[in-house]
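go over my protein:
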Amino acid sequence: MKQNHNYEINYIENTITVTKKFLKEAGVIGSAAYKELAQLRKDLPDFQIVQREISKKKDKKTYGKLDYKAMGEFIKEKEEDAADTVLAEFEHVKQLSKIRSGSYAYVKTWFLARYKDEFAAAETEEEVA
């Protein structure tokens, strides 16, 4: 099987698996991707062009409603006595996250390390209500 970053040729299944980005670039007549795809079709006329599918975890837990505001409100609600201290730490983590790529993921990881079970329970209660 010949591999390239934009496409993969499977001689067993007679398919050329291409990336979504490559297909979009190949849609522009005269572009390098267009010429490359045209050459592939010429060299391998019996092969089928298939777009690559990204595999996703079916049971992956997502936190769609979990933004900075929701995190702050949850901390205020759960940490009645120590809310100021924990909110200060939360703000510090938000500041630290700004120098990283994926800053939201950094803060979310911190938050879930502390409150994952409680937040999941609260989220379940909201859905039931």
Q: What stands out?
A: The helical segments are 20-26, 32-43, 68-78, 83-97, 103-128. The CA atoms of residues 1 and 12 lie 8 Å apart.
